[in-house]
TrEMBL record:
The lineage of its organism: Bacteria, Bacillati, Bacillota, Bacilli, Bacillales. The keyword Manganese does not apply. InterPro entries: Cyt_c_assembly (IPR002541), YpjD/HemX (IPR052372). It comes from Paenibacillus darwinianus. The chain crosses the membrane at residues 6-24, 36-58, 70-86, 93-111, 131-157, 182-207, 219-239, 251-271. Pfam families: Cytochrom_C_asm. It comes from the Bacteria. Residues 68-263 form the Cytochrome c assembly protein domain. This is Cytochrome C assembly protein. GO terms for molecular function: heme binding. PANTHER family: INNER MEMBRANE PROTEIN YPJD. Keywords: Membrane, Transmembrane, Transmembrane helix. GO terms for biological process: cytochrome complex assembly.
Length: 273
């Protein structure tokens, strides 16, 4: 336990230091700060990966998953994708804001209760479906997090250009057209993942005869989130609405998704209380 606590403290400290260097690069466009921040973030990724590998090797029953493991993997996923985005797209602001989210998730998770389990309904005949459901939903949350951050960037840049407020930060952002494209593509990745994860969960309920849980708040709020993101895709493609409107709708859809996460406290679907 002492070794584990040292690992967590080290992980949090290095992660925070990495964000400080990224913020320094964000403010002053320092290439040296960016290199140091990236190096520290890679080290954090390595610690997270090593910890996850050990947990996977020691996991004997996949019908149960703890909230700690769920959120830890989500934080690891954000770090992984942000490093890839930094390598191929070189959008420093994206990496910074995504890792602010990742750091918040990891910190709240590590300083919360690590012994609290989420007994996802133990449908003995569909354990493999549960693994698929968890994988899909985490992928969807990661994609939507990126999409919401891009949407926020679009709204910020649109407002600054509209008000003719020029700044160094604006020059470091991609064009509105590029940001809109990134927002749409990441949402387009997350939407089918969310739909598929919900479909797998509903199928598992039907197979196990747990049809009563179909009326649970968790299922209803997940459907609402799906509707919001499908509406975003329709507004962006078929209706061809202005970019600032679709970006605002995208951010609103993400807020609904986050609300869906907090509804676990009143849901019987995951028993997160």
């Amino acid at each position: 336990m002492l070794t584990q606590n040292i690992l967590f403290d080290t992980m949090i400290s290095i992660y925070a230091l990495s964000l400080l260097f990224y913020f320094s690069d964000f403010v002053d466009a320092s290439r040296r700060a960016k290199r140091v921040g990236t190096g520290l973030l890679v080290f954090v990724w390595g610690l997270q990966t090593a910890y996850l590998v050990v947990r996977v090797l020691n996991q004997s029953d996949w019908s149960l998953i703890s909230r700690f493991e769920y959120l830890f993997f989500f934080s690891w996923l954000l770090v992984t994708i942000s490093l890839a985005a930094s390598r191929f797209f070189r959008i420093e602001l994206l990496v910074f804001f995504v890792n602010v989210v990742g750091f918040a998730v990891l910190t709240l998770n590590l300083f919360g209760s690590t012994n609290e389990n989420i007994p996802l309904e133990p449908w003995e005949l569909v354990k493999e479906l549960l693994i698929v459901h968890i994988s899909l939903i985490m992928g969807a949350y990661a994609a939507f997090t990126f999409s919401a951050i891009f949407g926020g960037m679009y709204l910020f840049l649109h407002r600054q250009l509209k008000d003719k407020h020029w700044s160094r930060t604006m020059r470091r952002l991609p064009s509105l057209e590029s940001i809109d494209r990134y927002t749409f593509r990441t949402a387009l990745i997350g939407t089918p993942l969310l739909i598929l994860s919900l479909a797998v969960a509903v199928t598992s309920l039907l197979v196990e005869g747990k049809t009563g849980l179909l009326l649970d708040w968790k299922v209803f709020s997940s459907l609402v989130a799906v509707v919001f993101y499908i509406s975003y895709v329709i507004k962006r493609t078929l209706l061809a609405q202005p970019g600032w409107r679709t970006a605002r709708w995208n951010v609103l859809a993400y807020a609904v998704l986050i609300l869906n996460l907090f509804l676990n406290s009143v849901s019987r679907f995951h028993y997160w209380t």
